Amino acid sequence: MVGTGGTMEDKMILSKPALHQGFDNTSDKQNVGIHEFIHLLDKEDGSIDGIPSTLNGKAYALPWLELIRSKIAHIKKGKSDIPEYGATHEREFLAVVGEYFFERPQLLQQNHPELYTLMAQAFQQNTVNTLKITSNPRKELQRNDPCPCGSGKKFKKCCLSA
Predict the structure, then answer these.
(1) CA-CA to 103 of 20 to 30 Å: which in 117, 129, 135, 143?
(2) CA distance 126 to 9
């Protein structure tokens, strides 16, 4: 949950079990950590409005808004594999599709190529080429495995010790 005002301004509170579940299951297109972090990124320009700050003032901001409206309509008609929660509001659409973008980039690119391209521009990431899902996404990480964060370090010397 992202705080948008008062004492919660710019802070994120997450359920530890929900956070672990999001990263343990990399095939469901859902991850509460990614979702809430995207809300913080969205707020970078002062408002959580579903328009990433990297798109503000750019030529592809209008196509982004048109695509959001089109995709939300498809979700509401039950004609999309994007989770239904993405249709509740434009700000939620960005966060839900962001989860999809980082969890299942190849599937997003295959099912929604235009949306994938705009997300890649917004996040300045080509996740299809940089995020590879292993053959067993639920495999437990071992201490000497490469860290999944991409640092190049062993898991025990990186995120395990954090």
Answers:
(1) 143
(2) 30
